[in-house]
Amino acid sequence: MSEEITALAYHAPKEQEGLIIVKVEEENYVWGQDFGLQRNSQSQEVFRLRFRQFSYSDSSGPREAMSQLKELCSRWLKPEAHSKEQILELLVLEQFLAILPEELQAWVREQGPDNGEEAVTLLEELEKELNESRQQVRSSSEVSKSPSAVFGEPMQE
């Protein structure tokens, strides 16, 4: 369990009655019911979102903005733990998901693919299932429209 808890000023610290309020985050752990730290598998997604949604107005100036972006990016991509190839894979996966229609994007994100190949496979399997369902619907609607199916009589041509 990592003991390193760092202060991450996602939003610029706000002064309130002489106090400085800083949001404190822990990269890989969250407080559980037993008040101990537990591994958070979604932390990478949280930092990705914070990196992507960060705004210049969230900082007090250009240097702080750049510093915060670097920190968020580092926490998202974890260059100390991932190879260049893995980081590229994460970036390509993110862009692939971004170009999908919203419904598909949400569905794929729920499935939690680790790389682009997994995302493509998930979508191909979904497409195959949908095509099979459509064929079954067409087959059943053709059968129900057929006079022989309704009346038990052979069709005349």
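(the above was protein one; protein two follows)
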Amino acid sequence: MTGEEIILSGAWTQVAGTVIAAVGETLLVKDSGAGSPGYRFVSIGNGFEASGNSLQGVGSLQLFDGSEAEWLRIIGEWVQASGNATNVVAAELQFSGEETEGLKLDVVGDSIQATGLGFEAYGAGLSQLRYKDLLAAGNTVQALGAIIEGVGENFILKGKRELGLQITAFGSYGQVAGATMAAIALTKEFGGL
């Protein structure tokens, strides 16, 4: 596979992961008790996201031109993947009944994701890509979604469970929108749409 093909595979794998995680967050609004299948969806979705980000990182390294813009995007892709991996562990903790520990770790994972997306958005804005504005906007929307998820998790930690779950679900759909925007930009850039 070429670097471009690996990036596109990663981008669309990430989109699939955000959708799976958003389905899980939606299920949790109705049933967030230990053992809820929503946690498994969130875990699996974040696993897909981590894999997609890692694929993008590998593909970007193959195409690396030495520019600051691409270096920032590559750093962002790997940082975001580590945030997703953290969210996998957090969801599994919550699934097994360790809610407080899982929620605290989830906030950390969302913060790491948002940081990585910030690097990606900034790098996209500096790049020479034709669809850099759409890519930067997608990364920014996805970062905002991760931040909103973290806010929702903090509401849950403070005893405002119902509101927190709704905010977290809303943030997860922000991540779907942002990841989709970024994947469309990359597909237009490398796939000729």
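Reviewer note on protein two: Residues 3-191 form one domain.
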